[in-house]
Amino acid sequence: MDPVIIVGAGPVGLALSLALAAQDVPSVVLDEGPGKEEPRPARSVVLRADMAATVERLGCTTLRDEGVRWVGWRGMRRRQVVRHLELDLGLGGTEEWSEDPASPAAPAAPLHIPQHALARGLRDAIARQKLIELVPEARLDTVEQDRDGVVAHTRGPAGTWWRGSHLVGCDGARSTVRKLLGIRFPGRTAVERHAVAALRTELPWPGEALLHRQPPWRGAAEEIGARPLPDGVWRIDWLLPPRGDLVTPDALIARIRETLAGWCDGVTPPYELIDTGVHTVHHRLARRWRVGRVLLAGDAAHLLGAVGTQGLDEGLRDVDNLAWKLALTWHHGGSDRLLDSYQSERRAAVATRLRAADQSLPVLRGGGGLRTYLPGAARGHDALLTDGHLGRGPLGAPPAYPHSPLAPPHADGQIPVGTPPGAPVEDVRVTAPDGTTVRLRDRLGQGRLLVLLIAPGTGVWDRRHWRTAGVMPRLEEAVHALPVKAEVLVSETYPGAPAHAVLLVRPDGHLVAAFSGVRPEELYAAADAARGGPLTDREPAEASAGTSSEASAKSDRTADTH
After folding, report:
1. What is the DSSP string of 137-197?
2. Helix, strand or coil, per DSSP, at residue 360
């Protein structure tokens, strides 16, 4: 069968190719660039703990060596520390995980890494893969599709025609794929602007991330952020007026010196300026994410990033959601509902995030007015921004898909647990089929459903005893009869789940349903719903996406006016 064509070799496209390879699906990655990343320390990304673990699971090793997990979060307003949190390093995938129930529930530590280091780590992982072909200097100019697949043409030294089962546009904000499909990309331009500098220096809060609002020194920005990187390097961001003047080198140096002096008791410490830039945040959302066998992901589908939201983090969630659905379709065929659910789930989740950010911006950035004088208003604003940066609340929490088209019909045996249906499951300790004890997160991304039995006491039993005792034989028989591949896991406990509860989990870690005991028929119905219903040999093709220069220009004009 033809490979999946991935257009774009940024972190999202590279991660998608690796996620497909982990499920035995070949891909061709068309890279418009020369095949390597230009080092830009000022262009860095923040990954929430679960997405950092996902990237590590794909084989990217640079997270350990060139990324930093924040040990704490410090919020300041004027001269006061208004919020200080210690962060949990144990949920990020690279530290030892603590099972101590008495340990305080600290927020999980995000990971901060230069984008070029992340991309290089993903490329190194691809070099170890036989199922991925990475093609540099391949610029897409045509996409056509029929009932059986997709054809793409590229210009450049390797200019040729490519045949694939599906095509995914991961080619960024100016996506050629999106324009060739004529998909509108409405939204807002320059929602926020930041001057950015990467510099090596010593700050009073080693390893902590800082957000300083309304700093007291003259000429300061309304908001300044500092995030640590390895080797004593910091990325510092200054919030700029939406339509202010250009940031000159002299003006940026003045900002750096004033900021460092303000944080270091009035004395500017020695520093080495490594890189600078201006970061502009746009908020846009593509009208459609799927046209037949062609799909969009990452910045090609959405742009966000104001008040702590993370665009790349959302792009990696697109990968997590799409990869298992594409893999199931590639191997077995699939109902149209399965791939449609990618757009239904992810577009709704990103739209919710964008709506929360857009509603917060007037409150957080408006300044003045009655809200400034309301008791507790500033404290609430600080909490909202903290949640956005740490991956909590409406601006940052992992998405749930409660209204997914893949949700099963209600059954008598379904029970509520600590995780609502459609939400990400907790990363509990589980016993795998080979008897090893691992984290639930380690079993994700392999294209199979997970069936988790809650069985207190099994941790002290020998595996050969409990595998043949109690409900296990009946459960394994029920799982063997499911319409898709599934793996049985056992856990001593799960939040809100009684003994002998059975949880059905999607390959991307979202809960399908929980049942009171082993219920083969209800488990089968839920698994069938999770795969989109009965599989078919072929998907019905939508309208062809062939293009001409005139159609492309029309798409450009449409996107620019919305």
Report:
1. S-EEEEEEE-SS-EEEEEESTT-EEEEES-EEE---TT-HHHHHHT----EEEEEEEEEEE
2. helix
**β-bridge mates for residue 303, sequence order:** 284
Rg from Cα positions in the chain? 24
What is each CA distance from 420 to 14, 339, 453, 502, in whole angstroms?
31, 23, 17, 14
Short-list 284, 316, 236, 293, CA closest to 50: 316
Phi, psi values for residue 307, rounded to 5°: 45, 45
303: enclosing H helix or E strand: strand 302-303
Element holding 199 (H helix, E strand)? strand 187-200
What would the two tokens of residue 480 be?
């063997």
**Vertex 308, ends 307 and 314: CA angle to 5°?**
120
User: If DSSP codes are grouped into helix, strand and coil, which group holds residue 74?
Assistant: strand
C-beta separation of 511 from 423 below 8 A:
yes
Residue pLDDT tens, the chain, 562 long: 899 999 999 999 999 999 999 999 999 999 999 888 889 999 999 999 999 999 999 999 999 999 999 999 999 999 999 999 999 886 433 333 343 433 446 788 999 999 999 999 999 999 999 999 999 999 999 999 999 999 999 997 767 999 999 999 999 999 999 999 999 999 999 999 999 999 999 999 999 999 999 999 887 888 999 999 999 999 999 999 877 777 899 999 999 999 999 999 999 999 999 999 999 999 999 999 999 999 999 999 999 999 989 999 999 999 999 999 999 999 998 789 999 999 999 999 999 999 999 998 888 876 544 344 334 455 578 888 898 899 988 888 999 999 999 999 999 999 999 999 999 999 999 998 888 889 999 999 999 999 999 998 766 555 555 566 678 899 999 999 999 999 999 999 999 999 999 999 999 999 999 999 999 999 999 999 999 987 654 444 343 344 433 333 333 433 333 3
Sheet containing 486-491, strands listed edge to edge, beginning at the edge strand earlier in sequence? 437-439, 429-431, 486-491, 449-454, 501-505, 511-516
Token code pair at residue 141: 């100019």
Q: Which two tokens stand for residue 275?
A: 């890189």
